[in-house]
Specification:
seven-stranded antiparallel beta sheet, 203 residues, C8orf32 fold, alpha+beta
Amino acid sequence: MTIKASKLWATGALLIGSLIATNSQASDFMRVGARTAQPVGHYEFCLRMPAECTPQAYSAAPLKLTSAMWSLINEVNQEVNHAIIAITDQELWGIPEFWSYPERYGDCEDYVLEKRRRLVDAGLPASHLLITVVRQTNGDGHAVLTIRTDRGDLVLDNLTDRILPWRATDYEFLKRQSSRHAGQWNEIDDGRAVEVGNVSATR
């Protein structure tokens, strides 16, 4: 293991210890609102792979975040982040948006699809692994994977190997996949107070 990877695992161990020891609060979970429009890329993905976009077994209880589970999601997050070479859909497919399972190359949505697939294959419930659309501080759209745990919503991101609570990121959360139906989406009410430059703003 490299020094960088060791530091990431050490940081993760501290975070998981803190999460397990601390009772979850309402702010640890995204406020999910009404059904909203499905991203066009995901809509087309569902047309090609309808079995991936069906109603799914739902449990209101979040995933229990144990040390073993934390190790698993870290392993999958890092493996996919380092196995896939980032490239835009325009460069790879010649069109602005094309969601697919990556083989060697992909953009943010493809990283998310692959992480979700691997975690489902490892036995995690699909209803707790949700594709999520966010806005970066520069205004660009981005996709991450949200994991619903008993210690809050955690974010797996191809831009970093660190897994963070959603409220600890600097993204604006817009919408995410429904936990009840893999082909449907819900809006997110992101009401956090965040720092924009030196000015405090509320989303």
